[in-house]
Each structure stands twice: as C-alpha cells, then as structure tokens.
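Researcher: Structure prediction, please.
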Amino acid sequence: MRQTRFLRYFTLLKKTEKMIDVCCAIILKNDKILAVQRGAESSHPLKWEFPGGKIQDGETAEECIIREIEEELTIGIDIVAQLDAVEFDYGTKEINLIPFVCRIKSGKIALTEHVAKCWFNPNDWQSIDWAAADYELILKNLNRITMLVG
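Model: Predicted structure follows.
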C-alpha cells in the first residue's frame, strides 16, 4: 500500500516538472544534412542528433540556435525555416524539440561537444542510430525537410 502511494506521488510529481525547450539545427549543405554523434558518457550515449541545446532564460528560440551552433560547431548560421516542434518524454525528462533548417554562413565546423559528424542524404536517414526525440522529429517533418534539401 505504501509503495503504491509513493508510485502515484512520484508519477504526479514527474508530470508537474517543467518541459524543457530545446532547439536543434538541421544544417543543409548542397543535398546533404548534418548529424552529430553524442559521446559515450552523455545522457544518450553514441546516439546521433541534430546539434543544438536548451533555451536560456530571456533568450528566443532563434537566438538559442545561433548561440548553440556557435558553441558546439564554431560556425555561424543563417536560419532558413522553422519546422514543427515535437514533444518527447525520455522518462527522466520531457523536451519540446524546436527545429530550425539552417545553412552555414561562416566558419569551418569544429566539434566541441560531439565525437563525430556526418553529412547524410535525406533518403538515408533511417540508417543512422538517432536519439529518440530526433527520430520522432524527422518522422514528423520528413516531407518538408526533403523539399528544403532538394
């Protein structure tokens, strides 16, 4: 009985936690898209994702993605379009993943937080071991991503 009450309380507590707003960049280069791989010690070990990060207090989503890409990839970007966001529950955290389609405007990519990068053709996206939220994001936006790349 006590364990059941605890589980109900824990579930209710989890549901009241704030969803985390996270931006990601779908960076285009010619007919390819950039994916980056998380490190072995990260929260999603060795999974692939679109680069980006959490929106800070007082920051817009657009300001966030520009800052995050400068920090993670050492490049400047131009935002081409915003796609449909996806909400995803990882069990330990819930995120609202806000995607921006971008192009490189300056600099050369240098990874500061990820262990690898790859440029992939949109038709080959399923061959990549994606983080779950990014996978759902692709499913939701695949037609629009394909149109923007082509």
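Model: The longest helix spans residues 132-149.
Researcher: Thanks, that helps.
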